[in-house]
Amino acid sequence: MQLLKQQIRTNNHKTTRNIQLTIDEDVNVPDSRQDMDKLILSQGKVVIDESEPMVDRIRVKGHVSFQMLYSAGGDKADLDAMDGTVSFEETINVDNLLPSYETKVSCELEDLTVSMIHSRKVEVKGLVSLTIHVTEPDVIEGATDIENGDQIQCMYIKVPYMRTVADQKDIYRIRENVTIPQSKPNIHHLIWHCVTLNEAETKPLDNKIAVRGELEIFLIYHSEDQASLQYLNLDIPFSGEVDCTGCMEGMTADIGVALADTSVTVVPDEDGEARVLNVEVNLDLDIRIYQEEEMALLGDMFSTTSDIQAETEAMEYESLVVHNNAQTRIVERIRRQDNQPKILQVCYIEGDVKVDDMHTTQEGIQVEGAVAVRILYIAEDDAHPMNCLTGYLPFTYLVEVKDLSPDTIYRIRPSLEQISSIMLGSDEVEIKAVVNLKLLAFEKKKCRVITDMSVSDINYEAMNQLAGIVGYIVQDGDTLWNIAKRYYTTIDNLRSVNELTQDELHAGQKLVIVKG
């Protein structure tokens, strides 16, 4: 006889490390750009370029890219813009990390401040939050049955667990040529563009991931007569697919979608007029696909004719607790400051979700954060015709999850589903926003897996010390299995002798045991 085995692959969560990095660098205005008179708006994002796990530490390289819109110096009111990057490299201590472990580094730009030093230089300060997830891949050869084991009593267990089908990063590329509306004049010089990702959705298909959503493009440009500044909002829907081997429709998906590189350039139309925008956008996809499965394993065994010793190994695995989407709606008002010009018209609004704290309660997971909002508007100031309002929309939301244990591993991906504004006068704007919170939670469990066995002659001396027929009173925790194993009989014998119609026992129940 021999064990029939199955290879079991699991990913055991080892640790999560959070760290914050600061950046502080002076950046010169390029020679091709005009002098700065007043900074209007700045924005940025952080990108991880490379990560290298080592023993007890990890090296992370990345950069913060930023854009800034400003009023140019000179007699006439004009706008200009510039962009730049600030690189960083950090070695972070992570206890018990090994190069063979799987590490994922996610990042968020917590804060970015761009301030003028003088007309040709700015200071860029930022706070970068890094989260390092470490998992240990493990492979165990676990027994599922016994070949030629007719004389052996076997107990089987079912272990529900989440198998990782795909864990990969990919890029979804959007390439579109968009003609500006006929009501807008031709583009002479593109000053500023901003790309926002709205309502991004993903869905696992057979060996693919479906991606859909909408890009919002905001432009500021000089028309051909350069008499006035022009601004324009365009919506570009997109849909497509990326390859994901092993993925199937209906599997559990944990997919992060983030804007990466964006490019908007002006190209001539069929008549040679500057009315077409060439939009190129890359979306970074962080893809994890899971399949919920149930393993049937050999949990225990014994024989009435032989002494069987099973060798076991501890196995850690993750079982799905919950996978859902929650939404919270926010309505807040933002007022201009006394030193800001009055609002004539809102041109553009965007926001980012910042999560400050997450903690478990008896009812679920409490999420606290805010939406950082930037509003670009036309101002009552001829010298500075555009200005910016900024503010934070705080929120607290309970994602309801029942029966969370201390070993629960959860991940929440926040995103801004919708944001809009309504002017309430020249001093105040009402903001409405919808924050989406995607939750995936696993419970960390353990069991022992039979990996080998040895068979020897039965201990007849110990067996003969047991009476042939025993009256037994069931104790708390007793099962038919452990009683049969203890008294060298079988479950079928216990059922037959005691005329049992069900396997459940209760304390105080009386049984007659006939030794096998």
Quick overview:
The protein is mainly β. Helices cover 4% and strands 73% of the residues. It has a 3-stranded antiparallel sheet, with no helix packed on it.
Largest sheet, strands/sense/barrel: 3 strands, antiparallel
N- to C-terminal distance = 21 Å
Helix count from the secondary structure assignment: 3
Structural class: mainly beta
Name the helix and strand elements from N-terminus to C-terminus, one letter apiece: EEEEEEEEEEEEEEEEEEHEHHE
Helix content: under 10%
Percent of residues in beta strands: over 45%
Q: Gyration radius, to the nearest Å? A: 32 Å
Low-confidence spans: pLDDT under 50, at least 5 residues?
none
Number of beta-strand segments: 20
Mean pLDDT level:
91
Number of domains: 4
Gross geometry = elongated
Strand line-up of the largest beta sheet: 1-6-5
Give the SSE map:
Elements: E1 2-28, E2 36-54, E3 57-72, E4 79-93, E5 102-118, E6 121-147, E7 152-179, E8 187-205, E9 208-223, E10 229-243, E11 252-267, E12 276-303, E13 306-335, E14 343-360, E15 364-379, E16 386-400, E17 408-423, E18 428-457, H1 460-464, E19 469-473, H2 480-486, H3 491-498, E20 510-514
Antiparallel strand pairs: 1-6, 2-3, 3-4, 5-6, 7-12, 8-9, 9-10, 11-12, 13-18, 14-15, 15-16, 17-18, 19-20
Describe the structure.
The protein is mostly beta strands and 516 residues long. The protein folds into four domains: 1-150, no CATH class; 160-296, no CATH class; 319-451, no CATH class; 459-516, LysM domain (Membrane-bound Lytic Murein Transglycosylase D, Chain A, Roll). Helices cover 4% and strands 73% of the residues. The chain contains three helices and 20 strands. It has helices spanning 460-464, 480-486, 491-498; strands at residues 2-28, 36-54, 57-72, 79-93, 102-118, 121-147, 152-179, 187-205, 208-223, 229-243, 252-267, 276-303, 306-335, 343-360, 364-379, 386-400, 408-423, 428-457, 469-473, 510-514. The strands form seven sheets. The chain has a three-stranded antiparallel beta sheet with strand order 1-6-5, with no helix packed on it. A three-stranded antiparallel beta sheet has the order 2-3-4, with no helix packed on it. Strands 7-12-11 form a three-stranded antiparallel beta sheet, with no helix packed on it. The chain starts with a strand and ends with a strand. The model has no long low-confidence stretch (mean pLDDT 91).
